[in-house]
Specification:
single chain, 346 residues, Rossmann fold, five-stranded parallel beta sheet, two-stranded antiparallel sheet, 9 strands, elongated, disordered N terminus
């Protein structure tokens, strides 16, 4: 895509309809994005809340761009082709992403970061949309601040810098909010249920240390009478038993009372597992607390997703320990996943 910004023409006054039109389109974009986010999780806009960090972030991005556009037209610039193209591409990208939520596309047995191919493609398109929005913000504000040289190239660099900045802030957020067993008060009760989230399955359908550690924590909660039952979750990658089935077999070998264990093997992501909890567990009369079990680095994202679903859960960390490099990698991966969920509810 080549955009040409020409400053050699005579400046001209634009009627107020121009900034109003762009602002209207961006407000529609925002509403549409909110709609897609809640649609992604099987929710309606009736459950919308500004208590969610992601919803606030979406709003601030649009406001920053709208305010920039208002000042942009006050500068009496006579060239709006670049701005029109940027807004058009962002709108088109958002619409294409919406279509993908309606049509089931083949995943081609592609798995990346433990996610099926269709989810990877959706996340990539959403990320492209956000990247274009950052370019647009930088573009209009560089013009407003009278930085007229190589504006589009600088906007590209600034957009990359914005993404890295928000990723760094999310990483710090996870560092400062990380939950451990010592930071969460659990109450004993046989009407509580431990929901053990799935994790990787190794060759020969063996549980990874992460998966076995989560199941061990669930069994510990049951043994110590914090819960009266365990729900194992998690689907499978091609050629594997499901994470839940592998966890079930591991629990059986550990001597767990199998009458107190159930499993589901359809969910493929943390958000789907929280959606399952909302749909099937939260309103059950015989359940008090739902205690979600996962690795410590994962619990922050679990809590943030639960806020989006407006459900009250408790969390418990597995006993798994990671070396510094592995922990850094997992927290970085969590940061990417969290900012994607905040922004797009994926």
């Amino acid at each position: 895509m080549t955009l040409i910004y020409n400053y050699n023409h005579m400046k001209k006054n634009y009627p107020i309809i121009y900034p109003l039109f762009f602002s209207f389109v961006l407000i529609l974009q925002l509403i549409f994005l909110y709609y897609i986010k809640y649609l992604n999780q099987g929710l309606t806009l009736n459950e919308f809340s500004f208590k969610n960090i992601g919803n606030i972030f979406n709003l601030l991005v649009i406001l920053c761009l709208i305010i920039g556009i208002i000042f942009y037209f006050k500068r009496k610039q006579n060239e709006i082709t670049s701005l029109i193209i940027l807004i058009f591409i962002s709108t088109l990208t958002l619409f294409i992403t919406y279509l993908l939520t309606l049509v089931e596309i083949p995943s081609f047995e592609l798995y990346m970061l433990g996610q099926p191919g269709d989810k990877v493609i959706e996340a990539a398109l959403f990320t492209l949309y956000q990247f274009i929005m950052f370019i647009s913000i930088s573009f209009v504000w560089l013009i407003v601040l009278r930085s007229n040289r190589v504006v589009l190239l600088r906007s590209l660099y600034n957009a990359i810098a914005m993404i890295l900045f928000f990723l760094a802030m999310t990483f710090i957020f996870i560092q400062t909010r990380e939950y451990s067993s010592d930071h969460w008060s659990l109450t004993k009760g046989d009407r509580n249920v431990a929901v053990v989230l799935g994790a990787a399955v190794w060759s020969d359908n063996q549980p990874s240390p992460s998966l076995s550690g989560r199941v061990d924590r669930g069994i510990e909660l049951y043994t110590n009478k914090f819960v009266g039952g365990i729900l194992l979750t998690g689907s499978n990658a091609p050629g594997e038993m499901s994470e839940a089935e592998v966890a079930l077999e591991y629990a059986r070998k550990k001597g767990m009372d199998m009458e107190k264990v159930r499993y589901e093997s359809l969910t493929t992501s943390t958000s789907e597992q929280l959606k399952y909890i909302k749909k099937y567990l939260i309103d059950e009369e015989n359940i008090n607390d739902v205690i979600v079990v996962s690795d410590a680095y994962h619990l922050v994202r679990i809590i943030e997703i639960s806020k989006f679903f407006n459900i009250n859960i408790k969390v418990a960390a597995s006993p798994s320990h990671l070396n510094y490099k592995k922990k850094f990698y997992m927290q970085l991966r969590e940061s990417i996943a969290l900012i994607v969920f905040w922004s797009f509810a994926l």
